[in-house]
Specification:
Elements (H helix, E strand, L loop, with lengths): L2 E5 L5 H4 L3 H6 L14 H8 L2 E5 L14 E4 L2 E4 L1 H10 L18 E2 L1
Parallel strand pairs: 1-2, 2-5
Antiparallel strand pairs: 3-4
């Protein structure tokens, strides 16, 4: 496949992210799951797989998104610049758990 579509609402939280607090409490050595946020960059870079995520609760993905769209009153808006500003102003502090790097192009966060 060249594109992966994920709906956050149907995914386990620990599959999607591990926030800084959980990283501090449960070390990486004791957590068998590598969160998707730590693998999304390598999917594009190493496998040439783009990702389209539908997310309403994990702003952590602003850090790895190339494009961010928002559904606003049933209209789609490109809010990439705003999301990048939010990510810059409010860093998560979470550690990368699996070799992620910011994708160069083609992945999107919705």
């Amino acid at each position: 496949a060249t594109t992966l579509l994920i709906d956050e609402d149907t995914c386990a939280t620990n599959f999607m992210i591990r926030d800084r607090r959980m990283q501090m409490l449960v070390s990486k050595e004791k957590e068998p799951i590598t969160p998707f946020i730590s693998k999304i960059g390598s999917l594009l870079r190493d496998r040439h797989v783009s990702c389209l995520l539908v997310i309403g609760g994990a702003g952590d993905y602003f850090d790895v998104a190339d494009t961010v769209f928002m559904l606003d009153c049933y209209s789609v808006r490109d809010v990439t610049d705003e999301a990048q500003r939010v990510a810059r102003d409010l860093p998560t502090g979470a550690a990368d758990e699996g070799g992620n790097a910011k994708p160069s192009q083609q992945s999107a966060l919705s």
